Amino acid sequence: MPKKRRTFSTEFKKQVVALYESGKTRQSIVDEYELTPSALDRWIAQFQHSGSFKAKDNRTPEEQELIELRKRNKQLEMEVDILKQAALIMGRK
């Protein structure tokens, strides 16, 4: 039976990172709170990088630019489709 995905509050994450920063070993935190090492590493890196655990706050400028460009590209594609349809309608008249 697959494990149910657990979610953790921001406060819990901050407390766990604070334990790590105060000198508690990574392995003891993982064992005590039944966390995966990768989750703990990710929380530590996110908190040290931006002080936030939200993905959007931890994006690199390149990632943010790529997201914005993809959004703009989608918008322009929609505008082109609308203009094509308008040209077809105008051509019938």
Brief characterization of the structure:
This protein is mostly helical and 93 residues long.
Tell me the span between the first and last alpha carbons.
64 Å
Percentage of residues in helical conformation: over 70%
**H/E element string?**
HHHH
Instruction: Give the beta-strand count.
Output: 0
How many separate helices? Answer: 4
State the secondary-structure class. mainly alpha
**Can you tell me the residue ranges where pLDDT is under 50 for at least 5 consecutive residues?**
none
Mean pLDDT: 89
Strand content: under 5%
The shape is: elongated
What is the makeup of the main sheet?
A: none
Radius of gyration: 23 Å
Work out the count of structural domains: 2
Structure description:
By secondary structure, this protein is mainly α. It folds into two domains: 1-58, no CATH class; 59-93. Helix content is 71%, strand content 0%. The longest helix is centred in the last third of the chain and has 32 residues, at 61-92. The chain is elongated, with a radius of gyration of 23 Å. The model has no long low-confidence stretch (mean pLDDT 89).
